[in-house]
Design brief:
alpha/beta; Alpha-Beta Plaits; Rossmann fold; 3 domains; nine-stranded mixed β-sheet; four-stranded antiparallel β-sheet; 14 helices
Length: about 400
């Protein structure tokens, strides 16, 4: 493909991504995969170049652009040589016209900027849009980090988690034997620190209330030495289904997956009410802490969606608290750096419940209300808020 053809392809893809962000459609990665599947003529180099243009344009535009063309014209302000590829029909995009829309550079939509936790300094925010590293968690049920390093010399130890390895970007983890045998799982170092801070132990009854595809469930099972019981619940059947092959590969046999219906969770979890030693509420959130991986998601957030999400978080916290036995522990985590999803939720739970806040045992993090924040700029992890409480005996 010519440079002009690549630019045109990037505009077409960005149009699809902007439209999907507006309507709640498929993620950018999914749309890019579909696009190239229908265009076999695009070689590996073309795909890399087009993908790079698309994601550079996405990361640059804080507000959702008017169109894919506006997004790429915005990128051209930082890459003037890109304007030379607007060659016009039939194989290129039309040359820029005076006064046409051009996306402005920014970290996030303007309305969202004031909602960041005050502990997140303004100069930290651009790191939310950097390139995320490829982190792996060593599965204690299958071996040690030393075993993994011996089998994977390209990896290096991460900074904070004793189970974390980091690989070069683009490494095909699923093709290596250490992953196929269950010794390694892909998991950000921040998620690993949260799982370790739960302090799950053998013979506990643990509820992972928003288990999803099971990343933290697997980590908890390993910390429990595969002894006890984990009830992994979620309202999304598809995400729970993706957990099952991961459990088998990891050798985790203590996990029961349970599909629950929204607003009927309490009835469907009544058999463990007041009995759990540990409840993890890894709640749905805005995902502001994962923009490094999915930068277009910041175009999807609206005040209305955020309000619905925070209402769900409060509901799940109350539900999780009701599942605890006396002396049991509740851990709340969100991959968000917004105050209303983190410290505000934690402080509100403290006002409406008898739970006693506990310091979260983690080797890094910035204090935020009764919890801690992890951020890409300070900690090198995805962005998280986490807090922990105990039910009085």
């Amino acid at each position: 493909m010519t440079p002009a053809a690549r630019t045109l392809a990037a505009i077409e893809l960005l149009d699809e991504i902007v439209a999907a962000a507006r309507s709640g459609g498929a993620a950018a990665d999914t749309l890019i995969s579909r696009y190239f599947k229908a265009r076999h003529y695009a070689g590996a180099k073309d795909r890399r170049e087009i993908r790079s243009l698309v994601f550079r344009a996405i990361r640059r535009a804080g507000e959702r652009p008017e169109s894919g063309r506006a997004a790429l014209l915005g990128l051209a302000r930082d890459m003037p040589e890109l304007l030379e590829t607007f060659e016009g029909p039939p194989r290129g995009a039309p040359a820029p016209a005076a006064g046409e829309p051009v996306a402005e550079a920014g970290v996030a939509p303007a309305w969202l900027l004031d909602r960041f936790d005050p502990a997140v300094a303004e100069d930290e925010r651009p790191a939310l849009l950097g390139r995320a590293p490829l982190d792996l968690r060593v599965n204690r049920l299958k071996g040690t980090r030393e075993d993994a390093l011996a089998r994977l010399p390209e990896a290096s130890a991460c900074r904070w988690s004793p189970l974390c390895l980091r690989l070069p970007e683009g490494y095909r983890v699923e093709q290596i034997e250490a992953w196929q045998s269950g010794l390694l799982e892909i998991q950000d170092e921040g998620s690993q620190l949260i799982s370790l801070g739960c302090e799950a132990a053998a013979d506990m009854l643990v509820v992972d209330l928003c288990a999803g595809a099971g990343g933290k469930t697997l980590a908890l099972a390993a910390e429990m030495a595969n002894r006890g019981r984990i009830l992994a619940s979620d309202a999304d059947r598809g995400r729970l289904a993706r957990m099952m092959p991961r459990l088998k590969r990891a050798g985790a046999s203590i996990v029961e997956a349970r599909l629950v219906n929204p607003q009927r969770e309490a009835a469907m979890l009544a058999d463990v009410a007041g009995r759990a030693d540990l409840v993890l509420v890894d709640a749905p959130c805005s995902g502001t802490g994962t923009w490094r991986r999915n930068p277009e998601t910041r175009w999807r957030i609206t005040p209305e969606r955020l309000a619905r999400t925070t209402a769900l978080q409060a509901h799940l916290l109350d539900l999780g608290a009701a599942l605890l036995r006396p002396g049991g522990r509740l851990v709340y985590a969100v991959c968000s750096l917004l105050a209303e999803e983190g410290r505000d939720q934690a402080e509100a739970l403290g006002r409406r419940s008898s739970l006693v806040p506990e310091p979260f045992p983690m080797p890094t993090g910035t204090p935020s209300g009764p919890g801690l924040l992890l951020s890409p700029a300070r900690d090198g992890t995805d962005g998280f808020f986490v807090a922990r409480w105990q039910r009085p005996c």
